[in-house]
Amino acid sequence: EELIKSDMTGQFTYTEMSYVSKLKIGWDAGEWKFSFLNQQPVHIRAGERQCLGMAGGELFLFENREISIDDFKIDLEEQKITFYGMCSSVMNYDPRKFKSTISFTVGVLPKMRSEMVGENGKVELQERIYMKLR
Fold this sequence. Notes:
Layout: H1 2-7, E1 10-16, E2 19-28, E3 31-36, E4 42-45, E5 50-52, H2 53-59, E6 65-75, E7 80-89, E8 96-103, E9 111-117, E10 123-129, E11 131-133
Antiparallel strand pairs: 1-2, 1-11, 2-3, 3-4, 5-6, 6-7, 7-8, 8-9, 9-10
């Protein structure tokens, strides 16, 4: 529990040209809490389907899509969290498999890598590298 809080939580920022995003990641009693600046937090618990809606799409880098998370796995040795679930959109109601991994490797900038299996098994990939705020 303490290792997760010390190594896998905190405040992070992402900057791209004129766009700046701040993300706060928290962990408490088996629940992840993700908060963007001035928005409602997203809560994720293990073993429960969490319908995150469009806020999940924004969080996991697939904007304009709805994300549901079914479970997650914490790898303390590799310092990463992997979320598993489904992704859908207004134009395509058929949910597709979704996976997102957040890596917190010491000495390397935190990275989110999200994958969605699209049509014909083609994988759509989104990545974002964050800076940790002190």
